[in-house]
Amino acid sequence: MQFIDLVTQKDRIRGAVMARLESIVDRAQFIMGPEVAELESKLAAYAGTKHCLSCSSGTDALLIALMAKGIGPGDAVLTTPFTFVATAEVVSLTGATPVFVDIDPDTFNIDPALLEKGVLEARARGLEPKALIPVDLFGLAADYTRLEAEALRLGLWILEDACQGFGGAQGGKKAGSFGLVGATSFFPAKPLGCWGDGGAIFTDNDELAALMVSVRVHGGGVDKYSNVRIGLNGRLDSMQAAVLLEKLEIFDEELMLRDRVAKAYSSSLGGRLKVPVVPDGYRSAWAQYSVLARDSSDREKLMGALQKEGIPSVIYYKIPLHLQEAYGDLGYKAGDFPVTEDMASRVFSLPMHPYLKEEEIEQVCSVLLA
Ligand SMILES: *Cc1c(COP(=O)(O)O)cnc(C)c1O
């Protein structure tokens, strides 16, 4: 059994993608070909934002947004410690300091009630709180209704990390479109992935969009050899755009197929494990289907039983960011974020992809329920 099956999907779209790739090879227009602009306009329409900029990865998408907003040394950016390292890493890359805020135990997402505490902690450390990066963890959008109200009150702007959330929605608004700016990733294992690295940035703000276009390619001004600010090489190439154009065609269908898998898991497993909560009005992109065991030895037992049957399962995330060696100099210690630490000790993720068969779902459930 595959944890994520990229082969079935590839076989489905192979002919159409190869035709597009051949046309790029024939034209030899590898960078900024017409596929890139076509993809950006389709993604903006999909997310419901005025602008979409494709870029080289989810990490660069987040970084470009922070750089364009001038985040740097002395600034604090609030975020969750229960995420992939890139969310906080980009803050450090700008010279600013990540300040962690604990999560909600039902959704694994940053807890809006704790933002004010984060702001006070940042100030106590001599930092100026500027921005907030909520993460749409495992595919479920964070609570933007409350986050946007709190951020406004506390004077923070929001960068949505939709690297796992793209395809999800809350109240008819798509993931990627929340806050001032949203970032997503097209790493192959994400719900919408390319055949390499890629990402995208979304905003309704014209001025910020123009700044991000400049930062994306070496801080260019009127052309790329007049450099008006520090930027990076953050483009998406034509071939990845071509792959994404074909994958976008089947994306909504794949999201429905993922939802079918999640519903089947939840109805079987709900009595034995804590299954994911999808609050009313939300639609998850199901980047991961993550459950909670009773404690870490229960998790070890269940993951061992799955492994014995050849069923892969993975722990996202075993070490929260505030306890990672790379963040040792921030001075956090075990016990600082009790909800995150509890989740990290019990969470694990089951095989999740659109092409998981009924028999496979039943097999996973029967091993876990044995
Ligand atoms: C994958 C991911 C990223 C980084 O995306 P890349 O395309 O791998 O650079 C950032 N944040 C979160 C939450 C992610 O899951």
Secondary-structure map:
Layout (H helix, E strand, L loop, with lengths): L6 H21 L6 H14 L3 E5 L2 H11 L6 E5 L6 H8 L3 E4 L14 H10 L3 E6 L10 H11 L2 E5 L7 E2 L2 E2 L6 E5 L13 E5 L2 H11 L21 H12 L1 H19 L12 E2 L5 E4 L3 H13 L29 H9 E4 L7 H12 L1
Helix pairs in contact: 1-8, 2-8, 3-4, 3-7, 9-12
Family: Belongs to the DegT/DnrJ/EryC1 family.
Keywords: Pyridoxal phosphate
GO biological process, one term: polysaccharide biosynthetic process
Order of helix and strand elements from N to C terminus: HHEHEHEHEHEEEEEHHHEEHHEH
Q: Please outline the major beta sheet.
A: 7 strands, mixed
- What hetero molecules are in the model? pyridoxal-5'-phosphate
SS class = alpha/beta
Strand order of the largest sheet: 1-9-8-5-4-2-3
Fourth-level CATH superfamily of the largest domain:
Type I PLP-dependent aspartate aminotransferase-like (Major domain)
Cα(first) to Cα(last) distance is 19 Å
* Total E-strand runs: 12
Mean pLDDT: 97
At the first level of CATH, what is the class of the largest domain? Alpha Beta
The number of distinct helices, counting runs of at least 4 residues, comes to 12
The Cα radius of gyration reads 21 Å
